[in-house]
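> call design_seq(struct)
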C-alpha cells in the first residue's frame, strides 16, 4: 500500500529534501489519472518549524499522525542535532506495525538513532557516510549508492538523489508507468542509472574529453541487439579498457550493468503495456532467452516477470508497443 504519506519537518532541516517529498507525494495529479496520497507534514515539537534557511515550515500535525501513515519521509537535517525521544519511539512503532520509512541525505541519522538501521544496509550523502558508519556500527553503509532499499527502511543519498529514491518506491509499489508520469510532470529523469561515485569530489581536474552521451543514446536505441563492451568501445572510438574506465567515471557503473538496467526498464514497459510472452519480450530487450530475462529481472526487482505483469498490468485494451 502507498496511499497515506507523512513527512517530518525537522528543526533546522533542509527545505529541498522536504520539498522532494512534497513534490512527489503532496500534489494532486488525479487530472492525469495518477494516484493521490493523503499527505501531511508532521512535527515532533512546534507547529512552526524553523529551517536552516531562515524561514519556518508550518506543520499541521503532531506525531500521532504517524500512526496511520503507510510511508514516513525523513528529510535532511543537522546530524549533530538530536531529535526528541518520542520521535524515535514513533518511528520504531510505525515500522513495527508495517509502515515504511524513507530518508533522504542526512535524514539517515534520524533512522540510525532510532535503531532502524541496525542489521541493514543503508546510504546517505557521500560526505556523511563515514560518520554514519562510525556512529552506527551495526549497519552497513554503502556510500556509492544513490539509494538502498532494505524494505521497510529505504535510504537515499544527497539532495537530488531523494527524487530517485522516492520515484524508486513509487515504481516498486505502483509500477513504472506511474513513476514515469510523475517524473514527466516534475521534468526529471524517471530512473537514473549509476551511483554516487560519479559525484564524489576527487583530487585533480576532471577531464573534459570523452563525453559518452552520443554513445549512450545509440545504445538506448539498440538495446534489442546483442552488445559487447568491445562493440561499445568501437562506437566510442576507444579501446575496451579505456572505454570501461571512462564509462565508470562518467556514468557511475560498468557498461554491462548499465545495459542490463536499461533492458530491464524496457522489459517493464512491455510487461505493463503488452500481452507479449516473456520469451518475445526477452528477444525484444536483448536478453535473448526467457530464462536470462527472468534471472536478471528477479535479481534487480525481487519479482519474476509474470508476477510483475500481474501486479502492474495496464488496461489490456490499451496494449501497444511501448514508446522509446
Amino acid at each position: 500500500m502507498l496511499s497515506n504519506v507523512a513527512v517530518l519537518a525537522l528543526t533546522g532541516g533542509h527545505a529541498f529534501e522536504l520539498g522532494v517529498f512534497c513534490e512527489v507525494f503532496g500534489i494532486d495529479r488525479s487530472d492525469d489519472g495518477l494516484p493521490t496520497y493523503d499527505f501531511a507534514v508532521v512535527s515532533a515539537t512546534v507547529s512552526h518549524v524553523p529551517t536552516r534557511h531562515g524561514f519556518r515550515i508550518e506543520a499541521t500535525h503532531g506525531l500521532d499522525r504517524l500512526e496511520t501513515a503507510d510511508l514516513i519521509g525523513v528529510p535532511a537535517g543537522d546530524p549533530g542535532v538530536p531529535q526528541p525521544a518520542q520521535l524515535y519511539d514513533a518511528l520504531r512503532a510505525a515500522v513495527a506495525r508495517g509502515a515504511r520509512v524513507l530518508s533522504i541525505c542526512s535524514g539517515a541519522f534520524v533512522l540510525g538513532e532510532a535503531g532502524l538501521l541496525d542489521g541493514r544496509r543503508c546510504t546517505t550523502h557521500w560526505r556523511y557516510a563515514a560518520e554514519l558508519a562510525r556512529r552506527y556500527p551495526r549497519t552497513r553503509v554503502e556510500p556509492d549508492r544513490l539509494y538502498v532499499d532494505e524494505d521497510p527502511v529505504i535510504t537515499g543519498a544527497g539532495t537530488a538523489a531523494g527524487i530517485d529514491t522516492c520515484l524508486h518506491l513509487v515504481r516498486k509499489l505502483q509500477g513504472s508507468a506511474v513513476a514515469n508520469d510523475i517524473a514527466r510532470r516534475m521534468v526529471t529523469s524517471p530512473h537514473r542509472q549509476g551511483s554516487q561515485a560519479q559525484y564524489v569530489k576527487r583530487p585533480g581536474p576532471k577531464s573534459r574529453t570523452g563525453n559518452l552521451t552520443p554513445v549512450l543514446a545509440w545504445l538506448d536505441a539498440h538495446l534489442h541487439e546483442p552488445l559487447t563492451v568491445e562493440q561499445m568501445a568501437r562506437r566510442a572510438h576507444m579501446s575496451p579498457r579505456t572505454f570501461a574506465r571512462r564509462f565508470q567515471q562518467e556514468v557511475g557503473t560498468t557498461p554491462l550493468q548499465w545495459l542490463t538496467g536499461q533492458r530491464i526498464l524496457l522489459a517493464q514497459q512491455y510487461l505493463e503495456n503488452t500481452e507479449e510472452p516473456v520469451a518475445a519480450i526477452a528477444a525484444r530487450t536483448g536478453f535473448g532467452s526467457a530464462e536470462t530475462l527472468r534471472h536478471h529481472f528477479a535479481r534487480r526487482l525481487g519479482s519474476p516477470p509474470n508476477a510483475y505483469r500481474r501486479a502492474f498490468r495496464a488496461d489490456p485494451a490499451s496494449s501497444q508497443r511501448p514508446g522509446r
